[in-house]
Design a protein that fits this description.
4 helices; 27% strand; Nonspecific Lipid-transfer Protein, Chain A; 5-stranded mixed beta sheet; alpha+beta
Length: 113
């Protein structure tokens, strides 16, 4: 993922599992320092709102490669947590976050090359 900020902005149109939670997301990227950012993500009714500041219930830290794998449905949140790829300040949110990011279908490319 080259532009995490742009990707996050585009995700605001995506419909997520209808969980309600606010969390701080910290993305780390050793290759592109401009991707090292943090946001407050507010989820309500399947919609996401991105904020730079605000209150949150838990804090998530992960590498950009794991974040992109999570969003593309390659790996679940619970699996990343189990493997130690996600740092979560409140372990009680693992199941809720797993459900929130659940992807039943992996993305498909339908563009001709």
């Amino acid at each position: 993922m080259i532009n995490v900020k742009g990707f996050m902005e585009n995700l605001q149109c995506h419909t997520f599992y209808p969980e309600s939670i606010e969390f701080k997301l910290i993305i780390q990227d050793a290759l592109l320092p401009s991707n090292n950012q943090e946001w407050i993500l507010h989820f309500e009714g399947g919609r996401m709102e991105v904020k730079k500041r605000g209150r949150y219930q838990t804090e998530i830290t992960l590498d950009v490669s794991d974040f992109s794998s999570l969003l593309l449905g390659v790996v679940s949140f619970k699996e990343l947590y189990r493997l130690g790829k996600v740092r979560l300040s409140e372990a009680k949110y693992v199941n809720l976050l797993n459900q929130l990011f659940l992807t039943l279908e992996k993305p498909r490319c339908i563009s001709a090359f």
